[in-house]
Amino acid sequence: xxxxxxxxxxxxxxxxxxxxxxxxxxxxxxxxxxxxxxxxxxxxxxxxxxxxxxxxxxxxxxxxxxxxxxxxxxxxxxxxxxxxxxxxxxxxxxxxxxxxxxxxxxxxxxxxxxxxxxxxxxxxxxxxxxxxxxxxxxxxxxxxxxxxxxxxxxxxxxxxxxxxxxxxxxxxxxxxxxxxxxxxxxxxxxxxxxxxxxxxxxxxxxxxxxxxxxxxxxxxxxxxxxxx
Length: 228
Known about the structure:
Shape: elongated
CATH topology of the largest domain: Rossmann fold
Number of domains: 2
Mean pLDDT: 94
Number of helices: 7
CATH superfamily of the largest domain: Anticodon-binding domain
Largest sheet: 5 strands, mixed
Low-confidence stretches: none
Radius of gyration: 25 Å
């Protein structure tokens, strides 16, 4: 039972590492147990339609290995030097649903919000590690040498981060597109970039922008990523 409790806590830590509030999860202990189990529970997540199972954790006693030993004729005992005896180990099994976990991350991250100017945006607040696109490189306008400068920046960071280059439509619309797919950071190249080699980096969640040197773009993205 000690190790059953250990794995319950370890698995919950894993779920919480995805950046979702602990209030969205709960343990559900099984009242009716299978004949081979002495304890079982589910980790449940609060979806928009209510709490549903994500993962099952079962203490299966020695049923699995004892059965295999019986029918295979092969000894599967472990000698414990502290107890000075041999025994068939117990098995603690955890089984997680990938599709359900994917939906848990998406449903928690998806947000429709109204901004201070009464405009609306859709934003996917997933951890940067989960974001399909890590950064977007955006020239403010598609002229005046800004696209060429943006392409140079793109070439410098595309081997470290999966990035998108986008020069179509207004900068505001491009920000919204990146918000909707969960891109954590947008790097905007404007006319000042040509003068002092700086760009703005925009945070998806806060929409705040910082002015940084082009040479620091990769390091800043990495430091912001690690701080999330």
